[in-house]
Amino acid sequence: MILIADSGSTKCDWALLDYHKNTVLKTNTAGLNPAVLSVSQLQTIILENEKVLAHASQIQEVYFYGAGCNTKEPTAIVEHCLQTAFKQAKIHVSEDMLGACLAVTNAPGVVCILGTGSNSCFFDGNKVDLPFLALGYTLMDEAGGSYFGKQLLQDFFYNRMPEKLKIHFENRFELSPDILKNKLYKEEAPNVYLAQFSKFIYEYYSQEKPYFKSLLENGFNLFIDNRLLPDERTRDYPVHFIGSIAYFFKEILVDCLKNKNLAPGKIIRHPIEGLIDFHKQNM
């Protein structure tokens, strides 16, 4: 059997295929990002995945595509953790950008992820070229969940959020300054914590469209200006997007791209279905 995993910081999707190209199971766990989780935390998440571990002795190959797996050290950490659980399997660990590319296209193009964080690359049909480093939520991650979560919190505390929306926001989340500071500066995975606030956009978009539309446009345009326009290849190829924010607000995103004279490509929510298709075709 072949095990496929696509992991962001918040969630990891798993799919198990047999050699008759059947999907045996699909499940999900918490995300496995070695940039924000310790080895013991990574191992705990893997070892608590009982549905997959029930087939561990039959799994011959594991293909893991994950956020934070773009340099040697974190890649080796994830390989070790997976090998501990799947002792008989050959482990393949790649960055999430490669998984995103394989999920949306087999032709040259620009591929972007808007998940908990954000990233972009040029894909030539075989290899990923990252024109810029991905340095996380503190320095980058424009238009990702952590970015929008931070913007919402700023708007709330700077009194820029519409009054009715502030009431909903205050009722929806625990906003004690002490708790916020502890979560952001002392606890693990502050990027995931910030990203949870971005769910508010989906939940209340219909009630305050002008405010949310402006928030989304600003984030999308910042991503385009910083990550896409400086790379000349972006103007010559379709620009594909993966992630819930891109998927649910595709109309706004497409308008932002067209206003910058860029060609929108596919916009999908989750890479896992595309990765299942890719691996079935290559079995």
Count of alpha/pi helices: 14
Distance between the termini: 10 Å
Number of strands: 10
Query: What is the multimeric organization of the chains shown?
Result: single chain
- Give, in spatial order, the strands making up the sheet with the most strands: 3-2-1-4-5
Secondary structure elements and their pairing?
Layout: E1 2-7, E2 11-17, E3 23-30, H1 39-47, H2 50-53, E4 61-66, H3 72-85, E5 90-95, H4 96-104, E6 109-114, E7 118-123, E8 128-129, H5 136-139, H6 145-157, H7 163-172, H8 177-185, H9 190-196, H10 199-204, H11 209-228, E9 239-242, H12 244-248, H13 250-259, E10 264-268, H14 272-281
Helix pairs in contact: 1-3, 4-14, 6-9, 11-13
What can you see in these coordinates?
The chain is an alpha/beta fold. It has a domain at 2-100 and 272-281: 2-Layer Sandwich (Nucleotidyltransferase, domain 5), CATH 3.30.420.40. 46% of the residues lie in helices and 20% in strands. It contains 14 helices and ten strands. The protein has a five-stranded mixed β-sheet, sandwiched between helices. Strands 8-7-6-9-10 form a five-stranded mixed β-sheet, with helices on both faces. Strand 6 (109-114) and strand 7 form a beta hairpin. The relative contact order is 0.14. The mean pLDDT is 94.
